[in-house]
Design brief:
With about 350 residues, the protein is of the alpha/beta class. The chain has twelve helices and eleven strands.
Length: about 350
């Protein structure tokens, strides 16, 4: 067995984007095993994958700071790593892979395309063209190590059997269509206005064949209850299922509506159809969910907002561009979801 260490420490969506790459690698190279080093919270992502082990990094204590990174290297070295694929390529991972490289281990890192992304998001002399998707960049990293991966040949896992605890929340699936909606993101510039999202949910709920599940964190519970609008076929998942249970449930969705955020990539890694809404960011930056057509990415009116995209991650605010998502109509969103449900 050839043992590959994959480094991707955060964030949730970025870790989720590694899943199709690692799954394809394992399926297409039966002589390979992988150890993923990431934050412990993300371990459930990898639980269903053969020949993939998980190493939870302790960035708060044992692996904190420079000497902590060296301790992390010492811990990982015991696993007899043959290759290092740095999918993160930040200071911490650079130091870690340098330790391995100095010991003779072959390493490679993902080129994030920072120059192209800067050209895409600058306000003047903008170059509005797609940059290479992150999943393809990870494939390139593995190719540098001698492992060719064809993402078009991926096989998605079978749906897990839902536990009684999950069924208590979701009930059994019959002939109805299950729609997931994840209405939040890390930055407000990527969040669809709540009054418009309420209209989307209301319109979708009028079809009694639809069952709608709202995803979010505990701190978003009150906002989710407002979006629920006491509709019988709209169900809150937040605070009822833990992270691992959500991952078991998501493969049963027929479509996921998400912002440019982690839930889009989580659904896509199971082969679920995903419709995404974009604000100050843009699908051209390389973060379209895996295996999803570009037409499933709904963007604001570029004629009205010619400076878009203004940011790769949504953390930059440009005056006059706070409400760009108002130009994406609820009717457009509902129509796109319906197309994916019934095509």
């Amino acid at each position: 067995m050839k043992h590959i260490l994959v480094i991707r420490l955060s964030a949730m969506g970025d870790v989720a984007m590694t899943i199709p790459v690692i799954r394809s690698l394992i399926q297409q190279h039966t002589d390979v095993k992988v150890t993923v080093v990431s934050r412990p919270f993300f371990k459930p992502f990898f639980d269903d994958m053969d020949r993939v082990d998980f190493f939870g990094v302790d960035l708060e204590n044992r692996h904190k700071g420079f000497f902590g990174i060296y301790r992390l290297y010492q811990d990982l070295k015991k696993l007899k790593i043959d290759f290092v694929a740095d999918f993160h390529n930040v200071l911490r991972s650079k130091i870690l892979r340098t330790f391995f490289k100095s010991n003779g281990t072959k390493t490679a890192f993902t080129d994030k395309g920072r120059k192209e992304k800067k050209e895409l998001t600058r306000l003047e002399k903008k170059v509005l063209k797609p940059v290479k998707p992150m999943v393809d960049r990870h494939v390139d990293t593995l190719a540098q190590l001698g492992f060719k991966v064809d993402l078009s040949k991926i096989s998605f896992p079978e749906k897990p059997v839902l536990s009684d605890e999950i069924l208590t929340v979701t009930a059994e699936k019959s002939t109805n269509k299950w729609i997931g909606i994840a209405p939040f993101a890390q930055y407000q510039t990527k969040v669809y206005p709540s009054e418009l999202m309420q209209k989307v949910i209301l319109d979708l709920s009028e079809n009694q064949n639809h069952k709608i599940f709202l995803f979010g964190g505990k701190n978003e519970l009150n906002s989710l209850k407002n979006l629920q609008q006491n509709l019988e076929n709209v169900i809150l998942v937040a605070n009822k299922l833990n992270f691992k249970q959500e991952l078991q449930f998501i493969p049963y969705l027929d479509v996921m509506l998400s912002m440019d955020s982690g839930n889009a990539h989580i659904a896509a890694m199971y082969g679920i159809k995903v419709v995404t809404l974009w604000g100050n960011t843009h699908p051209f930056a390389g973060f379209v969910p895996f295996n999803q057509p570009l037409e499933n990415s709904l963007i604001p009116d570029l004629e009205k907002y010619p400076f878009l995209p203004t940011s790769v991650y949504g953390n930059k605010i440009v005056t006059g561009y706070q409400d760009v998502m108002q130009s994406i109509t609820p009717e457009e969103v509902v129509a796109k979801i319906s197309t994916n449900l019934y095509e």
